[in-house]
Amino acid sequence: MSNAHTHSFDEADWPFDEPVSTATFTTRHVMDGSLPVLEVFHDHDGEWQFLCGTTTESADVKLVCMGCVLERDASLFGLADLPPGWCADRAAPGEPWIRDVFAQEDDEEEDDEDEGEEEGVERGEGFTRMSAADFESFVDIAVDELSSKQDALISEHGFGGFARWYFDQASEKLEMFDEEDRKLFEADVIDIGSYSSSSGTWKWAWSNESVLPALREKSAVLKALERTTGRRMFIVPEAFKLDEECMAWELAALCVQQLRAMGVYRAPDSAGRLNNFLAIIAVRPAAAA
Ligand SMILES: [Zn+2]
User: With 165 labelled, which of 41, 142, 171, 232 sits at a CA distance of 20 to 30 A?
Assistant: First the structure.
């Protein structure tokens, strides 16, 4: 960890708060180039770990210069704003990073006893944590389902052909109007959450003060996805960063599946920067409404 060496990137572009030469944990497989970094932890105490995900054996773990790990994989630079207490994993290089919260070491030791050697389980806090690959498959299935559901909303209920929408939080109804401002449809909805394209962050509706309490309560059932996936992002009350905007649709797809909803409506604000994702529970033509 001598400071005398240089790196292949321009150190002026270093995005982390920590100095380039900060000591960080990785595995010998990452350093010898045989395996990519697939798991990144920003520990509660501020330390970073860049792991291949195949081992945490002390014989395989190495304490190295952070810059030396990062120069092996430019995609790691995008994780510089990962807060302490957060981790990120991915199924393979080139796949998006999935951010998540993890428990403090102290909490883990208590419920860790029966889980022994099983890698990846210990961070799920009681629920078995899906691997990045399993989570990706889980998401893919939900996204496929949502895609068919969206097609059905268009072909069977004429979604997409309206000029204006109105969401009344008090009645929990989404109304759709045509060019002449005639009401075409009315839908019962559950608010899932919102994505801000300016900050790149997601916020669950159940923790959003601007959502009425009754709607927040309905939305709170979505926290059950923590149990299904073992990922704590489903119970994080604060807004958190998504690495790609398409992940907002992926989260919405998981929620539509969880709610057994008919689909989703993405309601943009007037500036188009905040998109509210509403799960469609039931649709009625205006004539019947
Ligand atoms: Zn270095």
Answer: 142
CA of 100 to the centre of ligand 1 (A): 27
Q: Quick check: 215 and 191 in contact, CB under 8 A?
A: yes
Cβ–Cβ < 8 Å for 230, 130: yes
Find the 184 Cα to ligand 1 centroid distance in Å. 62
Residue 289 neighbours by CB under 8 Å, 6+ apart: 183, 185, 186
Residues near 127 by Cβ (< 8 Å), separated by ≥ 6? 226, 227, 228, 229, 230
14 CA → ligand 1 middle, Å: 12
Q: How far is the CA of 200 from the centre of ligand 1 (A)?
A: 30
Q: pTM of this prediction?
A: 0.86
List the chain domain ranges. Answer: 11-129, 134-288
pLDDT in tens, the chain (289 residues): 555 799 999 999 899 999 999 999 999 999 999 999 999 999 999 999 999 999 989 999 999 999 999 999 989 999 999 999 999 999 999 999 999 998 876 544 444 444 444 444 444 456 889 999 999 999 999 999 999 999 999 998 888 778 899 999 999 999 999 899 999 889 999 999 999 999 999 999 999 999 999 999 999 999 999 999 999 999 999 999 998 889 999 999 999 999 999 999 999 887 878 999 999 999 998 865 4
Buried (b) or exposed (e) across 227-256, using 16+ Cβ within 10 A?
Answer: eebbbbbbbbeebbbbbeeebbbbbbbbbb
**Of 92, 97, 48, the residue nearest 68 (C-alpha):** 48
- The span from the first CA to the last CA of the chain, in angstroms, equals 70
The tokens describing 89, both together, are 């994993």
Distance 1 CA to ligand 1 centre (A): 7
The rounded radius of gyration (Å) of the Cα atoms in the chain is 22
